[in-house]
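Q:
Got a chain?
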Amino acid sequence: MTKHLAFIALAAAALAACEQNRGVTTPAAAFESSLEARPDHDEGGGSGGPRAVYTLTNQVAGNAVAVFNRAADGTLSAAGTVATGGTGTGAGLGSQGAVALSDDGRWLFAVNAGSNDVSVLRVRRSGLSLASRTPSSGTLPISLTVRENVLYVLNAGGAGNITGFTVGESCPSAPMAGRSS
C-alpha cells in the first residue's frame, strides 16, 4: 500500500511538472483548485475577450464549478456556479489540479471525487455548460491534467491509478487502452 501511494505521489508530481501552469491550488477550504481561462474562442472574441477563473466546490450535496470574472487588473468578482452533475467529498482533496482546461480552451474538466467521475463542461463566451460525465476508471479521482488530446485522471482510492482518456471534438471517450496504471 505504501509503495502504491508513493507511486501515485510521484506520478502526480510528474504530471504536474508537465502541466504548463494550468491549475492553481487555492488556500480556501471551500475551493479545491482554480484555473484561468479565456472563453472567447468560439464566438469571435479577440485578445481583449473576457477572462474567468474557475474553482471547484467539492460539495457532497452536489459538486459545482464556481466561476469568477477576472478584470484586466486581476480583481475577481463572483459570477455564479455551474453544477457538475456529480458529487464531492466535502473535504479537501489534497491535490493540485481538480480542474483543468483543454489545450484549445473549449473544455473544462472537473473531478467529482464523491461520485468517482469526471465532468466535462463546454467553455463559451456565454459561460460554462455541462456536456457529459465520464467514469474515472477508479475511485476517488482527485486530480487531472490535459496534454494535447489526452486527459489523465489520478484516482487516489483503493490501490490508486492513473487513467488516460482521449479528448476529441465532442468530449473524452472511454479510457484509452494501455493508458492506465
